[in-house]
Amino acid sequence: MITRAELAAWDAQDSLASFRDRFHLPDGVIYLDGNSLGPLPKAAVDRLQTVVNTEWGEDLIRSWNKNDWIGQPQRLGDKIGRLIGAAPGQVVAADSTSINLYKLLAAALPMRRDRKVIVSQRDNFPTDLYMVQGLMVQLGQGHTLRYADPNDIAASLDSDVAVLMLTHVNYRDAQMYDMAAVTKAAHDCGALVIWDLAHSAGAVPVSLDAAGADFAVGCGYKFLNGGPGAPAFLYVAERHHAEVRPVLAGWMGHAAPFDFSSDYAPAPGIKRMLCGTPPVLSMSALEVAVDLLLEADIAATRTKSQRLTQLFFDLVDQECSTFGFVSTGPSDLDRRGSQVSLTHPEGYPIMQALIDRNVIGDFRAPDILRFGLTPLYLRYVDLWDAIAVLKEVMATGAWDAPAYKVRAAVT
Amino acid sequence: MITRAELAAWDAQDSLASFRDRFHLPDGVIYLDGNSLGPLPKAAVDRLQTVVNTEWGEDLIRSWNKNDWIGQPQRLGDKIGRLIGAAPGQVVAADSTSINLYKLLAAALPMRRDRKVIVSQRDNFPTDLYMVQGLMVQLGQGHTLRYADPNDIAASLDSDVAVLMLTHVNYRDAQMYDMAAVTKAAHDCGALVIWDLAHSAGAVPVSLDAAGADFAVGCGYKFLNGGPGAPAFLYVAERHHAEVRPVLAGWMGHAAPFDFSSDYAPAPGIKRMLCGTPPVLSMSALEVAVDLLLEADIAATRTKSQRLTQLFFDLVDQECSTFGFVSTGPSDLDRRGSQVSLTHPEGYPIMQALIDRNVIGDFRAPDILRFGLTPLYLRYVDLWDAIAVLKEVMATGAWDAPAYKVRAAVT
Fold first, then answer.
1. Do A280 and B275 touch (CB under 8 A)?
2. Which of chain A's residues have a Cβ under 8 Å away from the Cβ of B133?
3. Which residues of B touch A282 (CB under 8 A)?
4. Among B268, B295, B322, where does a domain finish?
5. What are the pLDDT digits (tens) for B84-115?
6. Staple B219 to which of A109, B92, B198, B282, CB 3.0 to 4.6 Å?
7. Of A24, A102, A365, the CB nearest to B260
8. Residues B223, B273: one domain?
9. Comparing C-alpha atoms, which of A278, A272, A265, A334 is closest to residue A306?
10. Which of A124, A258, A360 minimises the CB distance to B411?
11. Nearest to B131 by CA among B158, B108, B154, B161
12. CB distance A131–B248 less than 8 Å?
């Protein structure tokens, strides 16, 4: 039997415990949705005040040079690179995950002009698939989107495959690919690989360079804690820089944007993947959030994440075994990202009842209750308390209320 | 002879004078670069604190519903629509100007599949041309970019033209097109028109619906005062909504994004032009800035803008006629936007000397000194004082210092 007292003892020994105070967490809330929107780093409050009042308010246009706004997409990109195993000069912060995926897809397909298949998985995050679909319709060159079995990607790879596009950690069941092995399998058949790190960056160790990755994108507002709609990032391996021709050929990626030439010429290196003017306010919040993550030991973070994962499932078994929940995703913790999901036919109202009681996860259609596990600000006792609320919601039937069945615009 | 006392009297009579106090303007600075980065509306400081501390910090993921983050791109789009003569349901705030241009170009070309020419002007803002160039290379369908004479657009229009893409107010010389007449000329030859309102929205009266416009984009951080890198906007006339197939087919433009279907289906109406998750912090600053602009009478704003324009040129004539400056752009004030430019072979160091003395305009290669005229926070005496500084810089030769000749990353 696990007890709350035992978990409090774990917390007392936690080498990461001091990070919790670096975040603003609402009183009484157990926040298990940092995989969807990370909480507010306290440092972001001060940073935004400086950016707004001083850099925008006082320095105005001079901030592009004086406060190096112009260098931020690359400076921040290099910092994110340290979280995902990318040497400097290969990552920029920019735009949204969707748009960055489009940039990479549109750049990659001409590098494999004689191949017409893009491989992904049907249960990839939908916007990834939509971006492929939009591009295929646009190009009209006979490309097809092939869905692979996530447990046997290699079976879908052949000499027709131009690009393999996968999300490293699945958004529903947390299944995590072996990036190096899958990349090698794709390269062996001549395909390029685009990794979506939306649920990986800041959550699990990633080694893009070591895995031989070609391209990657990722999200700023989930495990990176960059704030609502924070800019995303993209990675292009240095060996591809010269060959990558940006399709979204905006002035911020021009070799000499302030020459105001009427002809496009891509900047050397990763800078060419920039397009328009970056949203400085949102980018600045992301930068301090990434700075905070860089202070944490990634190995300790991973260890705690796996311990939280095992604990969550153990507590569900111990406290909630009679309520019909089914745990999803791999049982091997080394094949999982930093989130857990339970399926239940009444998943939607159950989640609303939890949120109403300040245990915040989210629901993913059709029947998934999803909980993000974020080692820097979650305590082991938080999982005890969350599962206690879940138990009470189920035991009392509190979830079965009409108000909890009204679907919100965003689930 | 114009005197400073006379201009002070004009200011005392100015019906817009009270708006100046709604902006944070640094002590001693005369800010003539609101056409590049608008100053900080005081309301944005409070709004951002609420968004950061309460909506992000306290409400967290619940804000998508509770604080209607999800509706913001359309809600803000409708507000911007009121500034540019667009009825509700035709404008969204999203992404950058460059990316929005790409969305519209990529949507418009398939609507004129048998035509292979895109017409613009060589002196359009470069990123507009780059986006066309990037798309043409990507498509490989034999499109060409034809440069029209800005004084005779019609001469470049024929039955090969798919799209006419123009910036309504030119970024260098402030020349403003007759939107209705040019749109009609394009429609008469079967072409679609994309208007870039980067230097129009918030600066001059615009009537997209009345002009019969097809598409438009614009910038959030110039005359809209939305903050550095604020999101941009785009307009699609309602009659085109059903036919427009988004190429950047992201989940925020999906008919049912939270069904998480693996197949793309565009949302009805303008919402389909959204792509990824919007940068809420930057978007929120833009929204209060637009709210502020909506309080001002646009006719009074235009009248004052034209009076500032005439005054600027008159003062240069009166005070600086011997220094070799040449005024650019149309002499007819009704054909001008809300900025003025002077050319001078030593434009770069002269502008640096001005900025060093707290008169802030900007330089545009190869030889343009550019000054934005923004009626809501500029006083007539500010122009007197700015020209007095220019006169002193020229008369003393202060501009001719080595420090002023070092080119910055951003000019």
1. no
2. 249, 263-264
3. 279-282
4. B295
5. 999 999 999 999 999 999 999 999 999 999 99
6. B198
7. A365
8. yes
9. A334
10. A258
11. B108
12. yes
Residues B201, B268 within the same domain: yes
> Model-level pTM?
0.98
B196 is catalytic: yes
Q: B116 CB contacts (<8 Å, ≥6 apart)?
A: B141, B142, B143, B144, B160, B162
Cα–Cα distance for residue pair A389/A345, rounded to 1 Å: 19
Chain A positions touching B33 (Cβ under 8 A) are 60-61
Quote the CA–CA distance of B202 and B349 in Å, as a whole number: 30
Q: What is the mean pLDDT of residues A131-153?
A: 97
Q: What is the pLDDT of residues B47-92, one digit of tens each?
A: 999 999 999 999 999 999 999 999 999 999 999 999 999 999 999 9
**B409/A70 touch (CB, cutoff 8 Å), yes or no:** yes
Q: Which residues contact A40 (CB under 8 A, 6 or more apart)?
A: A23, A24, A225, A227, B52, B53, B56, B57
User: Do B178 and B324 lie in a common domain?
Assistant: no
Give dist(CA B385, CA A206) in Å, integer. Answer: 57
Predicted confidence (pLDDT) per residue in A256-286, tens digit: 999 999 999 999 999 999 999 999 999 999 9
Q: To the nearest whole angstrom, how far is the Cα of A127 from the nearest Cα of chain B?
A: 5
Spot the catalytic one: B47, B336, B370, B379.
B370
A392 close to A398: Cβ distance less than 8 angstroms = yes
CA angle B43, B49, B50 (to 5 degrees): 90
pLDDT of A411 reads 85
CATH code of B312's domain: 3.90.1150.10
The string of DSSP codes covering A382-396 is HHHHHHHHHHHHHHT
Alpha carbon of A55: minimum distance to chain B alpha carbons (Å):
9
User: ipTM of this model?
Assistant: 0.97
Per-residue pLDDT at B380 exceeds 90: yes
- A244 in the same domain as A190: yes
How far from chain centre, in Å, is Cα B205? 13
What's the N-to-C CA distance of chain B in angstroms? 34
B189–chain A nearest CA distance, Å:
25
The pLDDT confidence band at residue A234, using thresholds 50, 70 and 90, is very high
Phi, psi for A216 (deg, rounded to 5): -155, 155
Same domain flag for A341 and A221: no
Annotation says B125 is catalytic: yes
Q: Are residues B81 and B193 in the same domain?
A: yes
List the domain range (segments joined by +) for residue A232: 68-295
Nearest to B126 by CA among A271, A273, A102, A249: A249
Domain count, chain B: 2
Residue of A nearest to B128 (CA): A250
In the annotation, is A196 catalytic? yes
Nearest to B222 by CA among B349, B148, B125: B125
Q: Where are the beta strands (DSSP E) in A247-352?
A: 326-327, 339-343
Do B254 and B347 lie in one domain? The reply is no
Mark yes or no for CB contact B61/A33 under 8 Å: yes
- Do B106 and A138 lie within an 8 Å CB cutoff? yes
In terms of domains, do B209 and B332 share one? Answer: no
Query: Is A12 part of a structural domain of the chain?
Result: yes
Which residues have a Cβ under 8 Å from the Cβ of A233 and sit 6 or more positions away?
A76, A77, A80, A91, A92, A93, A94, A100, A201, A217, A218, A220
- Point out the catalytic residue in the list A79, A115, A222, A304: A222
pLDDT at A144 over 90: yes
